[in-house]
Amino acid sequence: MRVTQALICAAALALAACATTPPPAASGAVPPLPRLDAAQQRGHDFAVRRCSGCHTVGLDDGGAQDGPAFYKLARLYNPISLERRFAEVSAHGFDRMPAVPFTRAEAEDLVAYFDALHGN
Prior knowledge:
Layout: H1 2-20, H2 38-50, H3 70-76, H4 79-92, H5 104-117
Helix pairs in contact: 2-5, 4-5
């Protein structure tokens, strides 16, 4: 009988510990960026230089507050839509965003970076 009670008590304590341990996302831990290939890294570097003043360009919600976080935009747009949006932004800006001129190669690298963020 004592062995059964001890096992039940141990199981209850183990379950209680599981219930109080937050999952990694809820603990505030930011997932790391995936390993970036050369084009994705250039896109990331461009984003840090030219976009991070208004947008969060990594996977966390910290940082700039004016524009939407890139990882959220990566969920909304496919590569073709991104290319069109970047062409529009480059030439005319968008909403409160001013025009941010960049080359076609920079836009392609930025699309590659968004692809790395997709799914996060």
